[in-house]
Amino acid sequence: MKSRIPALLCAALAAVACSHAEKPAPKVDDSGLSRLNDDQMQPVDDARVEEGRAKDALARARANEADARARLDVANTERSVAEAQLKRSQAERDLLKKEYADRDQMAKVEQDISASQQRIQAADLKRQYLDRMVQVAQAENRLAQVHAKTAEAMTEQAKVRAMRTANVPQAESVNSGDVDSRVAQLQSQEAQERKRAADLRAGAVDLYNKWQATDSRVRLLARPESLPVPPPTEQQQR
Predict the structure, then answer these.
(1) CA separation (Å) from 14 to 19, 20, 25?
(2) To pair with 126 at 20 to 30 A between CA atoms, which of 119, 155, 165, 193?
(3) CA–CA dist 175, 193 (Å, integer)
(4) Which has the closest alpha carbon to 238: 43, 9, 61, 14?
(5) pTM across the whole model
């Protein structure tokens, strides 16, 4: 009897997984569209335009995520450079101590050490901000994916409604209730993803301000050239 428990548990988990699996999108028989006149086709054409825009927005969101990851990689390199500079300055200080260097030399190396420590602090805040921006880009990518699915579902919805209005038999190839239900479900999911992205972006603004406040104290110090990082302005969704 005991040996059956794992098998039953696996079966239960599989059933739960299947219940949460996304149902295939209902597709209407497009052959009926040929029976529609220009006025009847207009809502379908408009929906197709919006679907194309959603796919373009998805491509931009994917590119933005790749760009955010690249910026974080650069920031990680900058942090490593700042840490190496600190270690060199500390080694120089140890050497000067052994050589009983004068006060001016010691003051100069202590100043270099302090500057390197400030750069590391600023670099750490910058990395925190850019790491959050990667999360924002990921959230906006997910939002764009759902938006593209919503636009696709609304195109199918427009087809069904147009053909039903024109009494085209192909409108019966799908259940209009299923089509409407899918649109409503995706719109709800899209609203949730939009809120998640907005919440992450709000947190990114706080991190950006903290980084900028620290970076302003070390901005005039000599340091390697780095790519400018924009503030977390909201991406336009189409």
Answers:
(1) 9, 10, 22
(2) 193
(3) 27
(4) 61
(5) 0.76
